[in-house]
Amino acid sequence: MDLITKGFGTFSVESKPYSLKDETPSWIADAEENLGESEVREAHLAKSLFYIRIGDKEKALEQLKVTEGKTVAVGQRMDLVFYTLQLAFFYMDFDLISKSIDKAKNLFEEGGDWERKNRLKVYEGLYCMSSRNFKKAADLFLDSISTFTTYELFPYDTFIFYTVLTSIISLDRVSLKKKVVDAPEILTVIGKIQYLSEFLNSLYDCQYKSFFSAFAGLTEQIKLDRYLHPHFRYYMREVRTVVYSQFLESYKSVTIEAMAKAFGVTVDFIDMELSRFISAGKLHCKIDKVAGVLETNRPDAKNALYQATIKQGDFLLNRIQKLSRVIDL
What we know:
The protein is mainly alpha-helical. The chain contains 16 helices and 5 strands. Keywords: Proteasome.
């Protein structure tokens, strides 16, 4: 008997010759003629896993669909969705990932165990992170910290790495302290990942010079990560927005020189950085270049709500006017 493994589960099949040209290998035909339904399903699943292992995406998906037709149990059908997701993540096929996640959620409505449900959270979190929805990714990752079993995607250290990175740009200071900084599951692992502990704690402790130093050390890891690499520049901007906003939150006005000293950079660098973020609407402050001072102008929540209401009201009136013209015609 041969064992088909490679991280996709373990299944035993008869050790008979199998050519890629064979549409129906002899051991599958034998199972269909002489064995029961479960053995037939296992044989078809073994063929699916073979195609996955050699990277034949089209044939793997086709064979997984055949296997699904011979599968009754909801849990086993969920496992087939997970195999599909693994293949989709390998090829970064986001359309297939999205459809598979929706399919998995529909299967859970028919019934599913908590272990598979928690696994799905990690898959969905990885999809959200890969599609730049860091807020939802952080929420899903944090929900899965104590129940992580998705080792077929990545090890637990990598999972914590993703959790910390997404949480820093998604959570407010209080939530970051409660869910990440003091989380025992994160504390047991974070020290194994170079620069990550200093990156997280220096941000929370307002040690901005240490934060920038740790951030520089982490950039290479982020660049080399297959899921984060496409969003490297975006993530860099978001992190700097978070740290600059946190610093400015404590002041009504502060000199540019004092801010540059706190971050361990030059005045010209801070001036150039803040100019870009202010013009993009990321920071609510203005630069008095003559006096060398930064003045914060935090938006009034009530005024912002009033402006939003006026804007939506104008949009609604325009739609009503267009509709009335159509009705008159």
